[in-house]
Design goal:
Chain A: Pfam families: DUF3857 (PF12969), Transglut_core (PF01841). Chain A: GO terms for molecular function: peptidase activity. Chain A: It comes from Prolixibacter denitrificans. Chain A: Keywords: Hydrolase, Protease, Signal. The complex is a heterodimer of chains A (about 625) and B (about 675). In chain A, strand 28 and strand 29 form a beta hairpin. With about 625 residues, chain A is of the alpha+beta class. Chain A is globular, with a radius of gyration of 29 Å. In chain A, the strands form ten sheets. An eight-stranded mixed β-sheet of chain A has the order 5-4-9-2-1-11-14-13. Chain A has an eight-stranded mixed β-sheet with strand order 28-29-27-26-33-37-36-35. In chain A, strands 23-22-21-24-25 form a five-stranded antiparallel β-sheet. In chain A, helix 1 runs antiparallel to helix 2, helix 5 packs across helix 7 and helix 6 packs across helix 7. Chain B has about 675 residues and is mainly beta. Chain B is built from nine helices and 37 strands. In chain B, the strands form eight sheets. In chain B, strands 23, 24, 25, 26, 27, 31, 33, 34 and 35 form a nine-stranded mixed β-sheet that branches. In chain B, strands 5-4-8-2-1-10-13-12 form an eight-stranded mixed β-sheet, with no helix packed on it. The radius of gyration of chain B is 31 Å and the shape is globular. In chain B, about 40% of the residues are buried. The chains are: A alpha+beta (about 625), B mainly beta (about 675). At the A-B interface, strand 6, helix 10 and strand 30 of A face strand 6, strand 7, strand 16 and helix 9 of B.
Chain lengths: ~625, ~675
Amino acid sequence: MYKYLGILLLFLGSPFFAKAAVDAMTVRYLSNYTIEKGRLTLEKKVVIQINNQEGLKYGTIYIPYTAKDKISKLEVQIEKPSGELIRKIKKSEIQDVSAISDFSLYEDDYVKKIPVRYNRFPFRISYSYQISYHRFFQITDWIPIIDTDVPTLNAELRISTPLHYPIKIYRQHIEKAKASADNETMTYLWKTSIPKIPDEEVFSPSVYSLLPRVEVVPKNFEYGSAGSFSSWQTYGKWQSQLLEEADDLPDSEKSKVKQMVSHLDSPIEKARKIYQYLQDNTRYINVTLGIGGLKPYPASYVSTNKYGDCKALTNYMKALLEAAGIQAYCCDIYAGGTHRPVLDSFPSQQFNHVVLMLPLNQDTTWIECTNNSIPFGYVGTSIQNRKAFLIDEQNSQLIHTPSLSPEQVQNRCVIDYNVHPNQKCEAHYHYTFRGNAFGLFNQLYTSYPANVQEDYIRDFLPERDFTLKSWKLSKANREASTITLDATLELNHFGKMYGEDLAISPIPLSIPRFEAPNERKLPVQMSYPICSQDSIVYHFTQPVKLDEIPDSVSIHNTFGSLEMQATATDKQLTLKRRFIINGGDIDLTSYPAFYQFIRNIKSKTNLTFLTTTKL
Amino acid sequence: MKKHWLIALPLLLSFSASFGVVPDKPRFVYGQITKEDLELKSSDFPGDPGAAYEFDRGKSGFIVNKQESGFDVTFERKTRIKIFNKAGYDYSEIEIPLYTDGNSIEQIYKLEACTYNWENGKITKTPLDLKNVYEEKINANWIDKKFAMPNVKDGSIIEYSYTIISPYKFNLHDWYFQHRIPTVYSEYSVAMIPFYEYVFTLQSPANPDVQESYEDRSISRRFGTVEYHNMIHRFVMKDVPAFDDEEYITSDEDHLRKIDFQLAAIHFSDGHSTEIISTWPDLIKELLKDHDFGKYIKSSKSYLKKNFNENEIKGKSDNEKLAYAVDYVKKNFSWDGRYGKFASKSLKEFTREQTGNIGNLNLFLTALLQQMGMDAEPVILSTRSNGQIHSEYPMLQGFNYVATLVKVGDKQVLADASEPYCPFDLLPDRCLSNKGLVVKEDAQDWVNLRTYMPSATIDNIRIDFTSDLDSIKAKITRKATLYDAFRLRKTYKKAPDNLTEPFKEHGMTMLGDVSTENMDNAAERVGMQVEVQSPDEIIKDRIYVAPFLNLPVSENPFKQNSRTYPVDITYAKTRTFVATITIPDGYTLQSLPDEYTVDNKRIHIEYKGLHSGNQVVITGTYALKSPVYAASDYGNLQFYFTQIIKRFNQKLVFVKSDGLTKS
């Protein structure tokens, strides 16, 4: 079996194709959307071929739906690759369960789960169903794959609408639709195939940005209330309608807020005070019901329960600020590491999070309402440097969030090693975290019990085989955007004995493992820089002689920089280094140069000091 | 060694217990928050937990059902939790599981909950709005009632209480005295009536602070013509520490302090009784009569009589027969991923759909072996994650798996047909808990599931220097047996490229392809061979080479400062390296590394070198001889691993011959 594939591989010449195609592939993926009398229906038919035991993991079918949608004509069967029926799946094999994301307490979403198993490979799973949506907002966001490891051989998307029913289309990596019309309906048809799906690479764009994709929205829709995707303005107007009655902060709380800030003059100080009040009194809990995916729970709900999801908490914070006479705006944003840039020309729901924007004295302050432990106005790596959608009745628009500078993301590390004879050594680590690491350690510090913190720190420390003597996470105050970690370690055997000489290799820089240019298939997308500054000092209890001290290094180019100096006496060896990867977008043409820079930094910082006690 | 003591008493019959004991009054009263509660701090507990149960009280009993035809089980719970900080906020989201068999569902009554805070010098109360209680359908049998407590902040106290009324007598509520956060006071009491008899299993390293049984004479009860009093059984544990997840344990379920109940008998008011549990031999009889167990084996045999060609096994030895049978089932049927001691599908469905649960597969395997004329019986067991079996009490509920015990020559072999890549005479490692029950008429045999046969990986490494001496070329031949073979095969099957990952991770470059041996033959030990290139280090005319190429363990797997539970490494293990290095011309070995040998009951370590001519042979091997170690062995294991890491990773030094005058 594998031998055969080996040959196949030679012909195709792509390492990506190999394992995915071996296990399973989607033979057909058909989606047929019909809009009729204002209702949306999807007919879907998928045929998956499972090629071996490993492929069985793609043999479980999930059909998501909400309480009010109607699923009909569900049929699942096992077939031979020739199409011959092996058996039909019985009703009793279909499980119906709640589908609640792990970040939610409750959602009224369900999923039909159908585990299909068979033992003669290859075989096919063919399933089809019809789902009638009780309402809709988007017609489709179509990416015709069942998994990023499973290629699709034939995919087809068909959308039928009444004549003169305006829709808006965004497409990527796919031909324009064939459109046809008869007396009553307009039909759009796309066909594509995805014989290979690229693997994600270090700091590559999301795989989804490289696949055929069609997003279709109705130009005008009725979802809770009437709205339009004509422009960001119209869409924003609809969203602000959703917020309209949500500002029902109880009078008691309004006066509480007023009193709380009465002694403060500047709006920024007032906002800070109110933000701290929010942080101290609420928590993030997600409950999604009906239109709740878009419409926030009202301020009164959060005021009573003191919890809510991002929309509810943001809306509540907006109401609190309003009570103090401060105007703020809700902004939809796509939060997370690798994000798809917002499609300016395609107004639609492209976001997964909400934050608050405060336009104070020309300065813009961004407020994240779901985090109880970050400083006021802190812009973290998950929302920095991207477009956000500001909701304002008539003037909704896309605006840009600030970008983090190298200084804002710089992690600093000071290590002191006390080196004793026989490879015994104590080490003291002192870290100062910013940026992404701040987010991580801040979360760890505030939201996890001590035993979890300790386990995490033990794994995080870049030493092997040590005893963790003591550790401490600390933060100057709630407004600090840095957090420090102090750890004292006893290393069981420090360095390496080369005969009678002790070789010391400083801990390597933590640089992502970028692929070699000949292996790299995708561009680099880094939305913020990487920066670290280390100072490593070895204190020798017995005088030593050092073999060689490397010259200082100073590299600066468009991709980043490295500064490094080593100094030594017979009692002490000191190494200072600072490196920056600027980040940004690097296309494949520039990649070899970028990779060379990374390699250069790696080799320049990969040092071994040989020490001998025989002076 | 044995950490917990277990008792099981037919509760109804144990009148000998203390009489008329006044229940010890807990210092916490539901609904009454005191200054003491508000002042309770995280630092009052070891490990600074995010929250703590101040009290957790459960009460089970029986009430006459609505139809007055029998009884329902009631369970009442009152709980108070102090939330210290955000690490404890998870405990303010409550889930209450309710059981259903598809017809009737357990009902929840009197649900109430309240959050208490200290604000502006006084206690404020925020009750839970029942509108915010949701129902999540987990699967066909379980529904979760869920809610988040309102107005929770650092220092909040939350309380909730509810009553569940259940028609399911077998579902008499179990009780956990221990949680992942500390519990100051935990109490469970059960009011028994004369009609149902239960046995219970108490798992705890120490006696409960209170354990008492007495007749409640205050109320006389009557059902039909029977007049009776409740028998109260009460258990209290105080200051129970948080359960801290430790590595190398079977299952939390084997260590948490808890009490489990099992329905033993029903005594009807007309005087007759139905035994629910009786003796192991009786249980075995029942299993053998069961439609989805014994009868399923029978029908499998008649199916095989028609469909299995006996000629296939003519002249084969027992061992070959077993290999053939396991392979036959694996080839023709696939596992649907579900456990179970019973077949989940009828034989007809199973053979048509060619897929089934563990019961389907392994009972069918048993039938096939019997059909072949071999001595084979089913063995029921509990998987590692399901917790260990306590053979003191004849109950079936703990068993969740069935395998096959077969006589091969004069050996007993355990077999399973669910994992295509697992050797035919080996149970998948999920089955390696304490013991299994052989289901054989008129017998009561237990079989040890643990294997002391070590799973071994042997690396044979031949090292040569490249002509310019700046790197080495190595040919590595790896052989693996038992579970190590199973693992290697799984890695290979997932993606053949994955086999080279461990070498690449250690900075080696692959020269050519991997060749493999027996990857598709689960009966044999597995082999693979790679050729790699790796830079050596040349410093001042000396060449440094790690003979085992950084392949040995470099991080101590035993990291804790202390250990409470036994160290369970699943199965015994052996790891061996043999490196043969050809010394480059013009160079000499500086010295052989020190030999190191440890051999005791627990561990074997041997490290030595041999130098002859232009070759150096370094051999290192270590064996963890037992699948389970006592907690007190932890420190030793830690120490030995430090030795292994240090010695197996040390480098050899080659020096230019003219610069060396050593004898």
